[in-house]
Amino acid sequence: MYLSIDTTTQFSGLALYGENFQKELLWKTKFDHSQKLLIYIDKFLKENKVSYKDLKGIVVISGPGSFTGIRIGVCVGNTLAWSLNIPILAIDTLLAQALLLKEKKVVAILKASKNEAYLAKFQNLKKIGSYKIVPKKQILNLTKGFLIVAQFPDLKIKKGLIIDKASKNHRALEAIKFIYQDLKTKRKFTKPVHPFYLKKPNITYPSI
Hints:
The chain has 2 domains: 2-93 and 166-184, Nucleotidyltransferase, domain 5 (2-Layer Sandwich); 94-162, Nucleotidyltransferase, domain 5. Helix 1 crosses helix 2. Helix content is 27%, strand content 31%. The chain has helices at 33-47, 67-84, 93-98, 139-142, 171-184, and strands at 2-6, 11-18, 21-28, 57-61, 88-91, 105-113, 116-123, 126-135, 147-151, 160-162. By secondary structure, the chain is an alpha/beta fold. The mean pLDDT is 92.
């Protein structure tokens, strides 16, 4: 059995995936992952009669997104993988989001701030160009010819998918399905995964 973790945005998710088996847990968070994530994982495993010893690998969605959410998700994933001596792989948020549509040409958009978005274009699930941080007012001009999958509640689109509630966020499940065959070839923990940030975290240091 394989576990997938997505704590990159306010819509979080866990997924279990194996031969003829898949389950999800989706919820809206108040960015309290440091207090709740391990509780949710423990409950999710028990509800599905899966023990930690049954896990053979872990997938973590590594960002971009919430700085705290990314950090907690990656840290918990690495700790579990290391303690259980099982492999861990990472997939970025925008690719995981593009997987929700499975269309030939997809642009994935994630809210970065009130007036900015993370943006990436994919063709047949292969990234075109680089990941970008773009002003909100430029988004629609940059997405012509692509189907949009976005977690940006104020964005108005004609075709595509807007992730505006937790029940629409299946990134964790789609990520583990996408990377499953690669993960199956690995047998043990070799190295940790790392957070993927497109923006530097907004940290205020105390004055001395």
